[in-house]
Each structure stands twice: as structure tokens, then as C-alpha cells.
Amino acid sequence: MGLYLSESEGADFWLQVLTALSNRGVKGILIARVDGLKGFPKAINAIYPNTEVQLCVIHQIKNSLKYLAFKNKKEFMKDLK
């Protein structure tokens, strides 16, 4: 669909990308799976208000690991697998 480059990734950048896609004729997005970037779901819904925005399960797991003690992470990941 396109190649978009930026020095930093943020909701404003993604809003520009989504706006460009809309201008190129993309009528809607059914499901968007995002990584938890603050403001990203709001940016998606600003351009495509009917989009179902979901947080990626892999990112949820990765973000939850910070609450485990280091010594328990290996066992937790083994059990999760």
C-alpha cells in the first residue's frame, strides 16, 4: 500500500499514514491490531470510525513480563508456550 518513513513512531505519524491511505481510496479498515502506542486507536478511529481496534496479544504478554521477577520469567514463558 505504501512505504512511510519517520524518525520516530507516534500517533501523529500514524494519523498521517492513515490520512494518506484514505486519500488514496481506502474506504475502511475492518480490524486493526495495534501494539499499545498511546493515541494510535484514537488516530485510527479519527479516519476510520467503524474499525475494531484490538491490542495485540503478543504485545500484551511482552508488556506483562515487566511485572514478573527475572527468576520467574523463564518458567512463565515455558508454561505459556
Describe this structure in words.
The protein contains four helices and two strands. By secondary structure, it is mainly α. The chain has one domain (11-80). Strand 1, helix 2 and strand 2 form a beta-alpha-beta unit. Helix 1 packs parallel to helix 2 (40-47). The relative contact order is 0.15. The model has no long low-confidence stretch (mean pLDDT 90).
Short description:
This protein is mainly alpha-helical. The chain has one domain (11-80).
Describe this protein with a few key phrases.
single chain, 81 residues, mainly alpha, two-stranded parallel ribbon
- Give the C-alpha Rg: 16 Å
Distance between the termini: 34 Å
Quaternary state of the chains: single chain
Quick one: biggest sheet? 2 strands, parallel
Task: Map the helices and strands.
Elements: H1 11-23, E1 31-34, H2 40-47, E2 52-55, H3 57-64, H4 70-80
Parallel strand pairs: 1-2
Helix pairs in contact: 1-2
